[in-house]
Specification:
419 residues; mainly beta; four-stranded antiparallel sheet; 6% helix; five-stranded antiparallel sheet
């Protein structure tokens, strides 16, 4: 009888090991057959965060964050003169001969617009006085720029400035066409559409976390645990799943797939039938994705992470040894180039002093003091802007209608009720 128990024991060990061995692949069920997605973490020449990636073919692509990186054949490399090609806020690559980059200029809070024509980078004129946050280029080569209270489009070499969305918040996503029609998502998670002369808010009273459009007539929006689809001039619920609450960005992949990226390696995929959690190989925050034919593509994110995926088994690449990891200190501070009046007091009654500031060109800000102590006893201070949440931005209904903000120069705080 002992040999029977030995067989059962070793069989159990074998099954346990197979169940807990990471294979960096994920089985998904398509509408026609069962397939696998395989992942390979590629060597990266930089440990800086990547915010945009675009593949032009299987062997050529570009990735941008702090620096610009190029992919040729099998290796990612930094673009030469990285001091000139650094600190980017927005990018759009239509193809390898039409690449636009917005480079941040300190301490002016403005941007330079760079263009790559396939051979050289050069600076081109842009009409913005503030920062460029996002770029979109149409099939007809019209260039849309969105930023801090500015939006412009270049058509036939001529720039045209549009009226701004009525909420006066910075534009962080933009999708336009050649006929003066454009979708914008602002950083307070509102979605607007401009049709030649007027702005219309869509999905009102909903927090739109991310959007992706195939064109101005077809797109998708992430709202809480739902994906809405815009088609035939209307928004309708496309799918619902609780895992969508953990998604920060969505990407549409033709013909019927949608990817969702989140923090700590959280990746989900809509396969045409349902949402599936992907067993992603690493736990970095993923920020962008680019697709190439035959169910392949790249996912990129923080700390220079570059992950290739395919429906076929991928040979593993050798890790690139970079030595010390580059660390960027994160200051809990901001440029105060548009805040002219400041008052300090305990606004929410928690015993901590908060800050209220008024602005000329932006909504007023209320920084609530969120000082806290971590598990090891270290106290840190963090201020959260809650002006919109508490309805104290200073933007009135008449200003929204007329697009003309008041100029706020001073502020004071007092206990009116003496309580």
């Amino acid at each position: 009888m002992r040999w029977k128990y030995k067989i059962i024991f070793y069989t159990a060990i074998f099954l346990f090991c197979n169940a807990h061995t990471p294979n960096f692949s994920q089985t998904i069920k398509d509408s026609q057959e069962t397939k696998k997605i395989y992942f390979n973490v590629f060597p990266s020449p930089s440990k800086r965060d990547i915010t945009y990636i675009k593949m032009f073919s299987r062997s050529k692509g570009i990735a941008v964050g702090t620096y610009v990186m190029e992919f040729y054949g099998k290796v990612w490399n930094l673009v030469q003169k990285k001091s000139e090609l650094s600190s980017f806020r927005g990018m759009f690559a239509k193809d390898e001969n039409h690449i636009y980059l917005a480079k941040r200029i300190y301490p002016m809070s403005s941007s330079e617009l760079l263009f790559f024509d396939g051979s050289i980078w050069r600076k081109i004129y842009n009409p913005f006085s503030n920062e460029i946050f996002c770029i979109h280029v149409t099939n007809e080569n019209s260039v849309w720029l969105g930023g801090d209270r500015e939006i412009s489009v270049r058509k036939n070499i001529k720039w045209t400035n549009l009226t701004y969305p009525p909420n006066f918040f910075p534009i962080v996503q933009i999708f336009g066409n050649n006929e003066f029609q454009v979708w914008t998502r602002t950083n307070d998670n509102n979605l607007f559409f401009f049709n030649n002369s007027d702005w219309t808010q869509h999905l009102q009273n909903k927090s739109v976390v991310s959007v992706d459009f195939e064109n101005v007539n077809h797109g998708f929006a992430l709202v809480d645990n739902k994906i809405f689809e815009f088609t035939d001039g209307n928004w309708k619920i496309h799918s619902t799943d609780e895992s969508l609450k953990y998604v920060q960005k969505i990407y549409y992949q033709k013909p019927n797939r949608i990817w969702g990226l989140g923090k700590n390696g959280f990746v989900i995929l809509y396969d045409g039938i349902r949402w599936l959690k992907i067993d992603f190989p690493i736990k970095e925050n993923m920020t962008c994705i680019s697709f190439i034919p035959d169910e392949k593509g790249w996912i990129a994110g923080e700390n220079g992470t570059l992950v290739y995926f395919s429906s076929r088994v991928i040979p593993k690449s050798e890790p690139l040894k970079l030595g010390f990891k580059a660390v960027t200190p994160f200051p809990y501070a901001k440029y105060l180039d548009d805040e002219y009046g400041v008052a300090i007091d305990d606004i929410n009654g928690d015993g901590l002093r908060d800050i209220y500031s008024v602005c000329l060109y932006n909504p007023n800000r209320l920084y609530i003091n969120a000082t806290d102590t971590n598990k090891i006893g270290t106290t840190y201070s963090l201020f959260m802007d809650e002006a919109a949440k508490r309805n104290v931005t200073g933007v009135s209904e008449s200003e929204i209608i007329n697009y003309i903000p008041k100029l706020h120069l001073g502020v004071g705080l007092a206990d009116i009720e003496n309580d």
